[in-house]
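Input.
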Amino acid sequence: MTKQVAVILAGCGVYDGSEIYETTLTLLRLDQLGIGYRCFAPDIEQHHVVNHLTQEVIEGEQRNVLLESARLARGEVSPLEELDADSFDAVIVPGGFGVAKNLSDFASAGDSMQVLDALKAALVGFREEAKPIGLMCISPVLVPRLLDEGIAVTVGNDPAVSGAISAMGGLHRSCGVEDIVVDLEHRVVTTPAYMLATRISEAATGIFKLVDRIAEMMD
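Output.
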């Protein structure tokens, strides 16, 4: 495997971490294409812990984002601070509410959002070296603060989230669940995934397209 992709996680579970299906489908497609990968996550406490059966916050419980991400990555995960862009050809950020709660404060701050400093630092090298960056589901909302204004992205057709992207100086493009939006100038690829998907197969189509395009851009 000559190409290597960094995958950035935000915990484990759709309501307080990384979306498990989106992450798994991303890793599956990378492996099918013969592309190596390594998962990274910040070594911080989660914003909160959610009972995924009731979708209610579990008061008084704390979990660590890196340790929770290890569940999803089968233990093969490194602290985000160790991510060196020189060692990878691209980076992908799956979705899940952890993106809006742990990697940023979008869930509470909206278009006044701030992005985790460690995430900004990790992506500087990819941006400077024009290496492909893929984001899915809610994670494209990070782009105006994480990368720059004026970059075309999609979260599907959610009016509140797309409006926040526009308010932060981003460019939102409506997109179907099975498609992608590619900003060739800035080397950014996005897809709605579970912002729209009602079945895992729907999410898979768009995610596989995203990974395929990232692979083409790496070449």
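The chain has one domain: 4-218.
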